[in-house]
Every structure is written in structure tokens, then in C-alpha cells.
Amino acid sequence: METRDVPISVPALATEPRFAQRLREHLEAEQLLDKCYQLQEMPGGRVALPVLEEKLSLLSLPQEMPCGLVRIQDPIPSRASRRRAPARRLRDELRRLLGESWSEELERDVPRAWQRHGDLVLLSEDSFRAAPWEKLGPALWETVASALGARRLARRGRVLPGGMRCPSVTLLLGQDPWVEHVDNGIRYTFDVTKCMFSPGNITEKLRVASLPCSGEVLVDLYAGIGYFTLPYLVHAAAAFAHACEWNSHAVEALRRNLVLNGVQDRCRVHHGDSRELELRDVADRVNLGLIPSSEEGWPVACRVLKKGTGGVLHIHHNVEALPAERGSPEGSSPDGEAQHPMEGGGKETRRARIRPEWQRWAEATAARIRGLLAELHGQPWSTSILHIEVVKSYAPHVHHLVLDLECRPTLPTEPTASSSIPPDPTGR
Questions:
Q1: Backbone angles phi, psi at 107, to 5 degrees
Q2: For a surface tag, which of 80, 88, 295, 407 has the fewest beta carbons within 10 Å of its beta carbon?
Q3: How many CB atoms lie within 10 A of CB 168?
Q4: Which pTM was predicted?
């Protein structure tokens, strides 16, 4: 991929070195000095002091200091400019680009957050939508990329309707849509215009990576590009994985990612609708990572579990909880989001307080799975709630949860359910 360098020039006052300090003090006093760039030596020995483009109309040349207006090509950023936060640097560069056309409306349209995938920055859907930006053409995207240290830019749109959950992403600068992202030592590559990537799921990917899966067979019913398949194989030491995915773009990325991480020989990719999966009696563990609900996959998950020994289901679901009547609930952060174990830094936060609605959902799910297994195999099964993980909140009172549900065949005389949460065997 090739991108052309952004030609930048800024206005400056050039003077003899003996007047440079006095001129600098004058420009600072008049608030005309552009502190984003260094003073620069010009041909002939003169020194150029950058001035603000948007204030050129206010500039008056001091008579006692001979100087002239010039333009510096490819100015050198000042040390203070290099230390600025990226959002501040982006705003300053755009103000310089627009000069007197800068307005509060445009400032509100400048993003303060974005996703970075290698040398590509993915902007939010509502970035740079005001009409004046369109007049700038490619210069806008070149300036944004330069300010953010990127070579490529893209902007998100709304997720396209349909079960594939395809993103609507437009490349703004650059031609190659394939990016690479590294999480917990695992490399993910994907076409940013065709595949979704959720950095908000990092805590669950870290948790999965530390589960005791040595020697186990995993079935991942909604594999995507390998968000959870890869942590199971690379870090959790699963012996083999069956990865199911129906989006052809995600399947292409998944196959590439298996090779990138050297685990292609321990995974079979099933391209198609996981509800039609023909596997039976193979899995020690099943991942159902689909939200808002993975319920359509529950019968399949029951079929693929080993009928002689059973296994563990990891069931993702968005669960709505009623707002607390007074203050923040116990175990929540000041902004109302429940705390959950964080495995990346070696320390754990407080375990989330399990809200009644979450507990009821987990128990209802356990009962439903128990019924499906009994119907499928013609004998009783037990289901035990091992853990309820809070991944993130999507809206006030709506949380993405993961239920770790142990499912085992049992004799009719043995207990068939557990409605409490015993100590987590993984130490969480």
C-alpha cells in the first residue's frame, strides 16, 4: 500500500539571528506565535519563527526588527507539540488547516476517541459530518492521519441489518482494508470494511485464555474471526477446536488468523449456519459468544457435548436489570457499571455483586439446558452454575453476561440442579 506524504507549510516571520529572541517575545505577547513548530534556520542564515495562520490578518511587522513573511515547508513539530495528547494535537492541526474558517460547530465535530488497528485509525460514525469539511477534500484526511500518526483512515457507519453483523465502514485514506490487531499476544488480521472487532470484549478474552482447557475439545458456535477460538487454542491449551462461522469474510480472516498464530492444525473450520452443524458427542466445552442472545444455539450446544461425560457451556446473553432504588449497588463502580475480575494486570477487582435479575436468568437458563439435555439423551442431567461473568454494559441496566454452566449426565436419583453459585474453581 502506498500513501503520499502530506505537504505541510506554515507562515513564519524570518529575521536575522540577533533579532530572533526579541521577535519571539513580541509574537508571544501578541499571541501570534505558533508553538506547534520549532524555530527554523532559513537559507542565508535568517531564522524563521512560525506564526498562527488564522491570525495573519492581525499581524503587524515591528519596525525596529527587520523581518519578512515567509512560509516554512515541512516544519518541525516542537517538543511541546509532540507531547500533546492525540485529541488535542488533532484539533490544533485542524485549526491550523482551516484558519479563520474554524468554528465551534467544527470543533464539536472533531472526534475525541477512535480505534487504532496498526497503521489504520478507525473514526466514529459521527466524525466530520458537518458540511464545511467536504470542501477540504483529501487535505482533511491527510491532516487527520498526520496528526494521529496513521497512514490509513476509515470511518464507521451503522452495522448493516441481518444476522451477519457486517460493518458499514468507508476507507477515507489508503486502499488496503486489511489490518492487524494484537490482544494478549494473539494476532488478529481482518478486513475492517467487512468484519466486526470489539475491543470491549478484551476482559472475556483474557478470562478465556486462563481457563483450564488442557486436553479438551472446544466447539465455538459463533467463531467470527477467532475472537475466542484463538485464546482457547493459544493460551488455554485446548487440544482441538471446531470453529463455526457463516460469514464468508469472517471465515477468510479466521483461516488467516489460525495460520498467523500457528494453530491451524488444531482447528477445523465449519463454514455455514451453526444450527445445521452435524457434529455430535465431541465437545468438552462449548462457547456460545453471540449477543444479544445465543438461545438459538442451545440445542446444538447440547448435541455436541460428550454424552458420556458432559462438559461446560459458556453462554453469552444481554440481560436487563432494574435500576437500583438508592445509590449505586454494592460492588459497582461510581458510574454504575459492575466490577468484574481483570486478569491482565495480575490483580483482581472485587467480584461483581450478582444482581437478582442476573441470578434468575442464570437459573432459568440452567433449567432450560437441563431439559434439552434430558430430552436429547433420554436420561436426567445435572446443571451447575459455576460463574456469572460481567463483560460490559451496553446501556443503562443492560449488561453483557457470560454464564459458565457445568452439564453432567446423572442417575435419576441424584440431584438435578444447583441454584446457588459455588466457589469458582478457576479462582475468580
A1: -65, -40
A2: 80
A3: 12
A4: 0.69
